[in-house]
Amino acid sequence: MPVNADFAGRSYPPTAPYAVGSAKIREFAEAVGSTDPVHVDRAAARAAGYLDVIAPPTFAVLIAQQCDGQLITDPEAGIDFTRVVHGEQKFVHHRPLTAGDEVVGVLHVDRVRQAGGNAMVTTRSELTVGDELVCTATSTLVIRGAEDDGGDA
Q1: 123 vs 153: CA distance, rounded Å
Q2: How far apart are the C-alpha atoms of 51 and 48, rounded to whole Å?
Q3: What does the pLDDT look like over 88-117, one tens digit per residue?
Q4: How far apart are CA 117 and CA 80, in angstroms?
Q5: Could you tell me the strand order of the sheet in which 132-143 lies?
Q6: d(CA 146, CA 140)
Q7: Would you say residue 59 has pLDDT above 50?
Q8: In angstroms, rounded to a whole number, what is the distance separating the alpha carbons of residues 17 and 22?
Q9: Distance (Å) of CA 22 to CA 10, 14, 103
Q10: Strand, helix or coil at 57?
């Protein structure tokens, strides 16, 4: 089943809140090789003007991909996860994600198109804390088209 092009313009309900914790931030910072003390040291973060440690910018992908999961697991979308390749990711941060934040994401499917036998789906996740928009994450998913089975003609 091909990807459902009618999903362009669809939005999904808000996700359950994601609790941003200092331990999660520390683990992520270590995993991506960040050495900035504002990610691991509360005193350094406060000296820089933050309430607590802040997440590296790409930390938002954890929440954005949970949002994308709503689309990927929607049976009407026609997406075969075994064929998904993460093509591109962009973030617009309105403020850093901070330890103690409870982040909710709303997924919007901005575009569905065909290109070279593949489907290209562009999503936008608006991440909020309360009523405050903290990050807009835009993702392009490539869903590889069916391959020739190589059978005899």
Answers
A1: 39
A2: 9
A3: 999 999 999 999 999 999 999 999 999 888
A4: 14
A5: 18-19, 102-115, 118-129, 132-143, 84-93
A6: 19
A7: yes
A8: 16
A9: 34, 23, 14
A10: helix
The length of the chain, given as a count of residues: 153
- What the block records as the tokens of 37 is 């003390």
Are 101 and 134 a contacting pair, CB within 8 Å? yes
Query: Whole-model pTM above 0.85?
Result: yes
Q: 127 near 80, Cβ under 8 Å?
A: no
Least confident range from 29-33, 63-67, 84-88: namely 84-88
Query: How many CB atoms are closer than 10 A to CB 31?
Result: 11
Residue with tokens 């070279």: 116
In sequence order, which residues have a C-beta less than 8 Å from that of residue 86 and are 6 or more positions away?
A: 139, 140, 141, 142
Q: Are 68 and 107 in contact (CB under 8 A)?
A: yes
- Cα 128 to Cα 136: distance, rounded to the nearest angstrom: 9
Structure-token pair, residue 43: 């005193």
Q: Which residue has the tokens 């026609």?
A: 78
